[in-house]
Write a structure and sequence with these properties.
Alpha-Beta Plaits; alpha+beta; Arc Repressor Mutant, subunit A; 34% helix
């Protein structure tokens, strides 16, 4: 096999099974274990692969409420507000965005009381001018990742 697209193929194999052994990856990709190990190390060192973590079903752990917060932030306070949001462990995603709002944050909560407590704490922040919160009724998909496109007919 040629090494063309090997990194993409390695990433796709790990997306299918993040716990695959180097040996099984080498067999699947038809390369040596050393080659897989070297490419994997390079992908980790380059920050392409940032870690190996379990995908947690928060609903199964009774974090039944997912909230999407849209926040308008005062002037140049965007980095500070973003940092403060990241301090809240239940904020699983925080995005600086364009459009009507400056930040979109997604939080997981055990109940609406926990969600309300966190939202009220945010509303007293003088750097937050406006907020709009949506409660998710049903998650069609979460934690979705996708296989990389490979321009190779023998894939």
């Amino acid at each position: 096999m040629t090494y063309e697209h090997l990194d993409a193929k390695l990433i796709n194999a790990l997306l299918r099974d993040g716990r695959a052994s180097l040996r099984s990856l080498a067999e699947e990709l038809d390369v040596s274990v050393t080659t897989v190990s070297n490419h994997l190390s390079d992908l980790e060192n380059d920050g392409v692969i940032q870690g190996y973590v379990p995908v947690v079903d928060y609903d199964a752990l009774e974090y039944d409420v997912t909230a999407v917060l849209h926040l308008k932030v005062e002037g140049n306070a965007l980095p500070e507000v973003t940092d403060r949001l990241l301090e809240h462990k239940q904020m699983v995603s925080v995005y600086e965005v364009t459009g009507d709002y400056d930040i979109i944050a997604i939080g997981k909560f055990r109940d609406t009381d926990g969600m309300n407590e966190q939202i009220k704490a945010l509303l007293v922040d003088p750097d937050i001018n406006e907020s709009n919160t949506s409660v998710v009724l049903n998650a069609a998909t979460e934690h979705r990742q996708f296989a990389l496109d490979i321009d190779d007919e023998d894939v």
